[in-house]
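step 4 of 6: structure.
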Amino acid sequence: MKTPGFQFEVLHADGAARRGRLSTPHGTVDTPAFMPVGTHGSVKGLTAEEVAATGAQVMLANTYHLWLRPGADVVNALGSLHAFTRWPRTMLTDSGGFQVFSLASLRKIDDDGVTFRSHVDGAMCRLTPEGSIRIQATLGADIAMAFDECPAGDADRATVESAVARTTRWAQRCLATPRREGQALFGIVQGGTHVDLRHAHLAEIAAMDFDGIALGGLSVGEETAAMHEVLAEVAPTMPAARPRYLMGVGAPRDLIAGVLAGIDMFDCVLPTRNARNGQALTWHGRANIKQSRNQRSDAPIDSQCDGPCCTTGYSRGYLRHLFMGGEMVALRVLSLHNLYFLGALMRGMRSAIEAGRVRAWADETLTRMREGDELGPADDVPPSPKS
Amino acid sequence: MKTPGFQFEVLHADGAARRGRLSTPHGTVDTPAFMPVGTHGSVKGLTAEEVAATGAQVMLANTYHLWLRPGADVVNALGSLHAFTRWPRTMLTDSGGFQVFSLASLRKIDDDGVTFRSHVDGAMCRLTPEGSIRIQATLGADIAMAFDECPAGDADRATVESAVARTTRWAQRCLATPRREGQALFGIVQGGTHVDLRHAHLAEIAAMDFDGIALGGLSVGEETAAMHEVLAEVAPTMPAARPRYLMGVGAPRDLIAGVLAGIDMFDCVLPTRNARNGQALTWHGRANIKQSRNQRSDAPIDSQCDGPCCTTGYSRGYLRHLFMGGEMVALRVLSLHNLYFLGALMRGMRSAIEAGRVRAWADETLTRMREGDELGPADDVPPSPKS
């Protein structure tokens, strides 16, 4: 809470939902905010300029990936993360923990840290709370994340309890490690779908001197209803003066549930990953460009969208043709559309909070999304993929 | 020469080199011009807006590819090629012949046409001169190409003579087939590297009522010196009042040789294909972004380039990192850079012709390109790949 250059204020409240503003050394972020994920220092398929044009004000980069390749020292030598990635606005790095637990092999965890094999070249690596903070300091994002233990979505209660206890011990070590000047640090609350564990862990993390508090370990394979229950029970009780960040969530339905519960920040690879599978997010639910009904369609992806992909003559027929032929431009356009859509979704929620009608806005929007459109049936929103 | 809406004038001459202007129903084209190739209706990795920003005023699309997928009728239903591809300027389609001879299998040629298996789904297809013109009429480019027989670069003289004779017979059939209103038609001169055959075939094709004349069957595996000899001997004798098009050529050295010999139009997939292999075209020769010396380099791809990739903070180190990680943005940036470079090369030659010093400009530029730069040794310019 004392990091110089870092500020957060809540401008409006509407039920549990909040309309706020985050300030960092690289600009302001209107919240609730969706943060596009630049796994390797680039949001897949898109330039920094295009990402900014979707309304994004903060980008996330993955510590694990950049540490393994090209190395944090290389990023630092090239001017640190902002210059390296050409993203001049606020940046956030995760701790690397989630990728260690989900991507690396031969993972061995002990109280000091985690030893694992790199998924890139098989090299043995070790990450500790202190190491994660040092790497994040070298990368140079505006916001760093504490190194936590993130159990799988189907872990039993004892495993979750152990991860919670270890995450608390590691949180203290993260806070005790020197950071880059002006770099904020967020703590992470674990506890799976156990509301009582969540509350207890939140109390521990909230008592520490973190600049913001995140909910980790959600959208990792659990039932959507269980995640929404945790959100509704726990998020409103998070410290009001600090930003609240729901990690790894990006499906429209879950973003809406999170905002209604009082979450301020989200990140997910869903918009770009789904694009690479041909899926478009629209105001009428998910759509798949591959469907043969699009072959001769001169309609845009989403006739209700005012974004750069739906107002400049890209027909569904052309995009389907390019997608089926493996042309990069199809992936670019769908990725840009999906990020623009999430930007518009967040802008819609911010306006609705200011107008005091976010619950009605959410009901209308969810109803419309469930109706589906000409592009295809109203699929359920998919579980959020991770990078 | 009588196609309404189609005009060509030579504005300046400097030796054999010409500075001209082509007018079509979709705009003017300053020549000498390089035409980016949108194989499936999209220049690989780039939007139509980006292609236009490199200075390109005409785009080529491949009849063979679009005929097989999505089908010429689909393109027509979606507003024909200009609306389909969102390219509002001049478009040219090839005849499909080159791809039939280079991509299709079980190819069987007879005097009426070619029967072959589609490389997409193995279906038996047949293309004739009349069929090619009809497909091109349906696609709707401003300039169509005659259907020719293009022998391999190592074909013997008898095979080349046979292809020349057949190409002449097919040229007459192409001219006799109705085209889309306002669509120009170019004839193609074959003859391999045999200067006498080239001259004889040129006389036949030039006597026909084509709006422009192309040299086909070059850059198909023959020695560079042999191609340059054909250019120097044949190109200056092509009809002066009509545009001269050298097909499938895009290496800087060959573009310069072509312009000096009086060629007005070129096309090649080289700039985008080389980009996908990590190669950048620069004023100091070819460079490869993959080289480890680029790992910590904060220099742009080409410090002498004033294009959108070299003046906006893309470091070699960042591009190398993205390229090694398979990130699309690296392919985008290198593709855009290479196309911009060729656009700048053509602008440089047009200015030099206007100033009456294109030979000196060519000598200076070729010397600089042979010197190489920090990015790597001054490789020979590679043979031009085809799509």
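step 5 of 6: annotate
 - Chain B touches chain A through 36 residues (CB under 8 Å).
 - Residues 275-372 of chain B form one domain.
step 6 of 6: archive
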